[in-house]
Amino acid sequence: MKYETDLPVMLPLERHQSEPFLGLKSKHILTVALIAIIGPCVAFAQAPSGQESPLAVLVNWAPLLLKGFIFNLIISISAMAFGTAIGAILGLGQISLIAATRHSSWFVTQFFRNAPWLVLLFFAMFLLPFEINILGFKIPFPDWLKAILGLSLPVMANVSEIVRGAVRSLPSGQWEAAESLAYTRMQTLWLIILPQCVKRMLPPWMNLYSILTMATVLASIVGVSEVMTLTGQALASEGGRPELLAPFYGFVLLLFFIYCYPIARFTVWLEKKYAVIN
Amino acid sequence: MEMVYEWFRTLYQETGINLPFLYDEYDRNRMIDGLFTTVKLSLVCLFFSIIIGVIGAWLQGSSFKWTRRFVSGYIQLFRNTPPLVQLYFFYFAIGTLLPRVENDWGGQSPIFGSFAWAAISLSFFAGAFNVEIFRSGIEAVPKSTVEAAEALGFSKLQIYRDITLPLAFRVVLPALNNNLVNLVKTTTLAYAIAVPEMLYEANQIWSDNVNVTEMMVFLLLAYFVLVGILVSGMNRWERAMKIPGYG
Amino acid sequence: MKIKTLAATLVVSALSISAATADILDTIKERGTLIVGTKADYKPYGFLDTSGAVIGIEPDLAKDVADKLGVDIEFVPVVSSNRMQFLEQGKIDLMIATMTDKPDRREVVLIPDPNYYSSGTNVLALKSLGLKEWEDLRGKPVCGIQGAFYNKATSQTYGAEIVAFKGTAEAYSALKGGNCAAFVYDDSAIVAKAADPDWADYEMPLQTIDDAPWGLAVALGEEKFGQMMSEMIIEWHKTGRILELETKWGVTNTPFAQAMHDKYK
């Protein structure tokens, strides 16, 4: 029941509560997304007579592309694990009381954060040796390992920033209160600051993972046999038929959407769960 | 200037460190064009992505269910798919569906070239993140502030423009900066659809001269400087905008 | 396929501990696998089948080499912009990847003589454009492939604006989409494309330029392997293997392959 009024103050409060961002509407979002991707594909996918229809061609290649996509996921998970481990240390280095540690950590973080992912990947790809020789043992450096290393560099820098940002985002009162209770710096950090930070760090960390997963396709530009490389090669093997591009790239978009969308929802759920109630 | 060019030519002959964009006029022009294209693409995308972010965040507070759904769908679609594939999709799939125009060499070319598609695609990509960033900032503005504005008889648009957005803006600046820096780095993807930006030109040069190492080091430094300028500008702005005791 | 690659690399590394400075031929035999870099997006010279295997004229040639050595074969897909780096790094033992034999490339990799193949540069363009000479390309956007040597020549000598893509699928698509006036590429591939009914409106209008031989390559300093490859190439020409493969993969026999066959017969 609504009643007529001109006074904003009299209006029901709920109007200002923004709708739950994803809430129940995910199926609508999914529908819109699917239409947006598949629509142009279908519109575009009209085969000239006498050839296999583009969708039939796509079905032929789908198993190979899926294999490639799984490889993307392996790269993303490894790079995330590796980057997070080093990045966390680097982040703590950034809030160190020792000026040298702080400054060098800051510099490393800034350097890798400011370099484009693609350029770092090129760097890792072309400048790391094919194998390294340590004490007569040859440690091989295959492509996929280089891709993981190349991608974990920016992840490391971003994690470092997330850690620093989270620590800095806590009110200084937390530090002061701990100090007044005679906690040491170490104790304050581990018992008071970091536990509160984890909640704040989780959503941006998940976002970073999403970004990383989507960045794995960059490995195609440097020749790792992941889904985009295979898509390009599949298209070339079909003789470069232009009407195939939309369905093929649409398919790749869809694969990533199906994987990343649930992660995004989970992140939002986490954000809500850990929301600091003011 | 000629002396400097000659010095680098000698450097190549003596040490094998090959920086052709410093002594070869053709390569030098390519590199300079590349730099300008990168800067231009970045600025265009920065501008449009912020516009998209502001409008999107406003539409998300709309009272029409379908407006909100549409914006959510847009965000989810662009956030959860790789920008590189988006770029391909825009350029190759959507680009060919649009009507064509007569061009000056007597053929039919699409309305948008690769630069335009890169700008559109990257703006939408970064814009999707910006909508969420602005939304989180708007949510961080205390309800009491909005209510106070309402009590003073501000209209919805006025509240958004004069109260919520300026406050939200300060809250979200760090996140926004982060995203904008990302955007500038993401412009390297335009390489894939042959937009002649810095990475593309560098790639052309190293293909012709087989000097990947030198070009790679140069590229890293160039982007480090470029992004460094942006970051320091943003930080300065962040400090200037700061309200003591708020956020 | 990846797991196999991983396993192979691990085995390779395990085996190569003992043979630190050995000749590459010994390494290959010890490892039991010849690793060859070929194109995977260059129909019909090297492309994928739906199972992900590399097939085509060059992979067939590579198989001959592996058979001769009595080892298995493994293909690493390469593109023009990374093929020489891969060879330098030792990632591949042998590269047969549609590479034009150029003096500056001979400084980076070892290209055994004689050449195994040849092609020239030409463009694929709409018939309605009525191109007559290379000069007609001046100021027009022309699609190309990243890393191809004729990009620079086309833009420097004839003033075309090169729009270079990573793969052929993108370039063909951009041409058909009207983003380019023409597509500059190897004439052998263009002849095949222009015969395709889908591309009936397109033609190869210009004089082929830069008719240049292709060279396969091994890493610099691998003289013994290079010597063996020279003999191998002569053998291919002598027996007409190249002509036979051209027919197998649907390419009209090229004058170069015919001439080499006649020379060594």
From TrEMBL, chain A:
Residue stretches making up the ABC transmembrane type-1 domain: 69-264
Gene Ontology BP annotations: amino acid transport
Family annotation (Gene3D superfamilies): MetI-like
Membrane topology: Multi-pass membrane protein
UniProt GO cellular component terms: ATP-binding cassette (ABC) transporter complex
Chain ranges passing through the membrane: 29-49, 69-93, 114-132, 206-224, 244-264
InterPro entries: AA_ABC_transptr_permease_3TM, ArtM/GltK/GlnP/TcyL/YhdX-like, MetI-like, MetI-like_sf
Keyword annotations of the record: Cell membrane, Membrane, Transmembrane, Transmembrane helix, Transport
Subcellular location: Cell inner membrane; Cell membrane
Single GO molecular function: transmembrane transporter activity
NCBIfam families, alphabetized: HEQRo_perm_3TM
Family: Belongs to the binding-protein-dependent transport system permease family. HisMQ subfamily.
UniProt name for this protein: Amino acid ABC transporter
Species, as recorded: Neptunicoccus cionae
Top-level taxonomy: Bacteria, Pseudomonadati, Pseudomonadota, Alphaproteobacteria, Rhodobacterales
UniProtKB/TrEMBL annotation, chain B:
Molecular function GO labels: transmembrane transporter activity
Any one biological process term the GO annotation gives: amino acid transport
Keyword flag Kinase: no
One CC-aspect GO term: ATP-binding cassette (ABC) transporter complex
Keyword terms: Amino-acid transport, Cell membrane, Membrane, Transmembrane, Transmembrane helix, Transport
Subcellular location: Cell inner membrane; Cell membrane
InterPro entries according to UniProt: AA_ABC_transptr_permease_3TM, ArtM/GltK/GlnP/TcyL/YhdX-like, MetI-like, MetI-like_sf
Membrane protein topology class: Multi-pass membrane protein
Tree of life domain: Bacteria
Domain ABC transmembrane type-1, first and last residues per copy: 35-231
Keyword Chloroplast: no
Pfam family name, one: BPD_transp_1
CDD domains cross-referenced by the UniProt entry: TM_PBP2
Transmembrane segments: 38-61, 81-99, 111-129, 215-234
Family listed: Belongs to the binding-protein-dependent transport system permease family. HisMQ subfamily.
Protein name as catalogued: Amino acid ABC transporter
From TrEMBL, chain C:
Chain segments annotated as coiled-coil in the UniProt record: none
SUPFAM superfamilies: Periplasmic binding protein-like II
Solute-binding protein family 3/N-terminal domain segment(s): 33-253
Top-rank lineage group of the source organism: Bacteria
Record GO biological process: amino acid transport
Annotated signal peptide: 1-22
GO CC, one annotated term: extracellular region
Keywords: Signal, Transport
Matching SMART domains: PBPb
Family: Belongs to the bacterial solute-binding protein 3 family.
Protein name, as recorded: Amino acid ABC transporter
Organism of provenance: Neptunicoccus cionae
